[in-house]
Amino acid sequence: MRSEFEIKPAEEPDVTRLQSLINASAFQTNGQGQLLPLNKQEIEALVDQGAFYCAWDGINLIGCVSIVEYAGLVELRSLIVSRSYRSQGVGQSLIRTAMEAARRKGYNELLALTNTSAIPLFEATGFKKEPRPPEKLARDCAKCPLLQGGCIEEAVVANL
Ligand SMILES: CC(C)(COP(=O)(O)OP(=O)(O)OC[C@H]1O[C@@H](n2cnc3c(N)ncnc32)[C@H](O)[C@@H]1OP(=O)(O)O)[C@@H](O)C(=O)NCCC(=O)NCCS
To answer: Please, what is the Cα angle at 92 between 88 and 98, to 5 degrees?
Structure first.
C-alpha cells in the first residue's frame, strides 16, 4: 500500500530520532552500513541551520536527508528511508527536496556520495557519476570507519 507522507525541515525535538535512524545504518569498520555516522551535536548544528529534512507518515519518522555546505560545495548527505517505507517514492522526494534546498541557497550543483545500489535512483533524479572531489576526502572520508578499506561509495553530481 502506498503511504501518504510529507517532508518538512527537521526541528530540535527530532534530533534524537534522526540520530537513531541514521546511526542504525551507519558505516562500521567491518564495511557494513550505508551512511556516515553522525553524533548528536553534528545533527543539531545542521537542524539549527535548517539543513536537515524529515519525511513523516503521521507521527512516524520514515526518512531523512541533509545538505551540507563546505569549501564552496554543497553535498546531499544522510539519505535514508525506513525499510518498510521503501520503493514508494520517499527517497526520490527526499533527493528532490535536497536539490531544491541547494538551489535556493544559490548553488548550481549538488554532490552526493552513494553506494552502488542507490546509484540508479540518483541517476533517475538527474545525477551523473563524477570523480570524488578532494574536498570530500579531506573533510569526511578522513574520519570515516571505511577509511581503512572497503569503501564502495561513488560520487554523483546533479546540475540544479
Ligand atoms: C536508497 C533509499 C534512500 C531509497 O529510498 P526509497 O524510498 O526506496 O526510494 P524510492 O522509492 O524513491 O526509489 C526506489 C527506486 O530507486 C531505485 N533504487 C536504486 N537504488 C536503490 C536502493 N538501494 N534501494 C531501493 N531502491 C533503489 C530502484 O529503481 C527503486 O525502484 P523500485 O522501488 O521499483 O525497486 C533507501 O533504499 C535506503 O534508505 N537505503 C539505505 C540507505 C542508503 O543506502 N542511502 C543512500 C546513501 S546516499
So the answer is: 140
Per-residue pLDDT band at 5 (split at 50, 70, 90): very high
Instruction: Determine the residue of 21, 62, 66, 81 to mutate for testing ligand 1's pocket, defined as the one with the most ligand atoms within 8 A of the Cβ atom.
Output: 81
66 lines ligand 1 (CB under 6 A): no
pLDDT at residue number 134: 86
Show me where the domains of the chain are located.
Answer: 6-159
Please name the residue that has the C-alpha cell 530540535: 12
- Local structure of 40: helix, strand or coil: helix
Ligand 1 nearest-atom number relative to CA 78: 48
Number of residues assigned to the chain: 160
CATH architecture group of domain 6-159: 3-Layer(aba) Sandwich (3.40)
- Is the pLDDT at 142 greater than 90? The verdict is no
pLDDT tens per residue, range 110-139: 999 999 899 999 999 999 999 988 888 888
Pull the grid cell for residue 146. 571505511
Nearest CA to ligand 1 atom 32: 87
91 Cα: distance to centroid of ligand 1 (angstroms)? 6
